[in-house]
Write a structure and sequence with these properties.
single chain, 167 residues, mainly alpha, 2 domains, 3-stranded antiparallel sheet, 6 helices, 61% helix
Length: 167
């Protein structure tokens, strides 16, 4: 009860600071808005998550991960463009284009689709096939001499950029 009261007082104070004035009507509106906000927060936190649905907390965390997903994908596109330009201007003598199988696990269809799109928009990689039954993605890369390094790079990119949004 004391915590809720403190929250109402703090929110009302923030409201009045934002207004820049203290009038009786403003105080009343601030208190009503604060009570409504605190009551709504208590109601939202008291709802147990339903079976199969994600609770509010993870949904907010997923939304918060969107900038990293978009920004990281843009970085991958830039890095892939640089690799393709370098490859076209002067092909490394020992480069061996080829396919690499990337284990993606048995993830949700949205996760596999997002992973395929994210990897496919980068110019240095082409998604050949996604086998959801086996949990693998077949990827064509410009240099397939070290498949383990390609797998590690893809796994790292997934963990850092996508997993938070599309686990």
């Amino acid at each position: 009860m004391v915590r809720s009261f403190a929250k109402v007082v703090a929110l009302t104070a923030i409201y009045l600071l934002a207004l820049g004035q203290i009038q009786p009507g403003d105080i009343l509106v601030g208190v009503l808005l604060a009570v409504l906000l605190v009551a709504s927060a208590r109601f939202i936190h008291s709802i147990p998550p339903t079976e199969g649905a994600s609770p509010m907390g993870p949904a907010l965390r997923r939304i918060a991960g969107l900038p990293a997903l978009i920004g990281g994908t843009l970085v991958d596109i830039g890095r892939g463009s640089w690799t393709v330009a370098h490859y076209c201007l002067r092909k490394p003598p020992d480069a061996e284009p080829g396919t690499v199988t990337i284990p993606i696990g048995r993830s949700s269809p949205s996760s596999a689709t997002t992973w395929g799109i994210r990897v496919g928009v980068s110019p240095d990689t082409v998604v050949v096939d996604v086998d959801e039954r086996r949990g693998e993605m077949l990827l064509h890369v410009l240099d397939a001499r070290d498949p383990d390094a390609v797998r590690a790079d893809q796994r790292d990119s997934y963990e850092r950029r996508q997993r938070r949004v599309f686990p």
